Amino acid sequence: MDQTSILPLLGSSGTFLPVKGHTTMASVTFDKATRIYPGATKPSVNQLDIEIADGEFLVLVGPSGCGKSTSLRMLAGLEDVNAGAIRIGDRDVTHLPPKDRDIAMVFQNYALYPHMTVADNMGFALKIAGVNKSEIRAKVEEAAKILDLTEYLDRKPKALSGGQRQRVAMGRAIVREPQVFLMDEPLSNLDAKLRVSTRTQIAGLQRRLGITTVYVTHDQTEALTMGDRVAVLKDGLLQQVDTPRNMYDRPANLFVAGFIGSPAMNLIEVPITEGGVKFGNSIVPVSRDALATAAANGDTTVVVGVRPEHFDVSGATSKDGVAVTVNVVEELGSDGFVYGSTRVGGEDKDIVIRVGGREIPAKGSTLHVVPRAGELHVFSKSTEQRISE
Ligand SMILES: Nc1ncnc2c1ncn2[C@@H]1O[C@H](COP(=O)(O)OP(=O)(O)OP(=O)(O)O)[C@@H](O)[C@H]1O
Ligand SMILES: [Mg+2]
Predict the structure, then answer these.
(1) Which of 13, 21, 191, 346 has its CA 20 to 30 A from that of 245?
(2) What is the pTM of this model?
(3) Which residue numbers delimit the ABC transporter domain (predicted)?
(4) Residue of 42, 45, 68 to mutate, ligand 1, most atoms within 8 A of C-beta
């Protein structure tokens, strides 16, 4: 981190002590990094390949057990790497002990020392490192200012709210001025509302500090809202790493398509027909290339993905697309989600459709829906990979 990137942090005293003045770039590289736990039959993390730029906020996301924490712990040096390598900047850290990696980790359970004050908790790592008292105090006070914890410095953790404790845990990481922050589900102990405000604070703070950050969550909304880029893992295998926008607009396979987005993308198997796919009474155009790829895979059907906001909706008298029976309506004011059932491609299917806030249909009524041309995601039935542009 250079001097300029830390300037906005300086309080009036100007003593945030950017003393370390890192000269190396703190990019992070997972180079086919693999972790096989003793006795396991398959890798928990399998040839993970990601390059994280200096200053980037990368979010690792995926369902429980997909290998997120294992990946982070390999980077922290808390877990052996069985094959491949991990680099921070130009340094190969694959076999370095955690203390030599210049990282700071924030865990889900903040693990604050209950008998120490907030200030002592925040300064503890520096004390262990032999930093002198006045320097520790200065760093702690600056971090407290950034985190809005100044008035709590003399309290014990038990006298703090969950969100405040979480900030103390952040403070403990910040005072160390590491090259890389690692965070493993740091918000999961907070209630829903606090989680939303704290995630904004963390993302904002990371941007101001400019410290390369790898952040783990199982929550795709958190991933999309916080990350510069998002890496989706499943069963130890990287599925896609991309910006939130691209992840949403161009999911690489069926898994990512279903995982990213809330409510989830509708994934519907439909027959291929001349120039497109047959969606009930309508034919929705699909690119020639996509159809050729499907044919080359020997498929007569494809799975189309339609986001809830990408249907054209008409009333019961319409003949377009498929008829949907409205089962449940979620009204959100500005818009609403219709949870319905339909029959498409010879199968009964649940379907979610977003409608305008003033166009909410009655429960039990019938709608006709057809995917908007150009908004269709097409996946191979046999390979599950994206085949549309
Ligand atoms: N110490 C261990 N010994 C053996 N297997 C382990 C160990 N730790 C994790 N695993 C296995 O490795 C896989 C990945 O675990 P990991 O903790 O990385 O998942 P995760 O993505 O962090 O999940 P969660 O969202 O539940 O925290 C799981 O199948 C898990 O059972
Ligand atoms: Mg985990």
Answers:
(1) 191
(2) 0.89
(3) 28-260
(4) 68
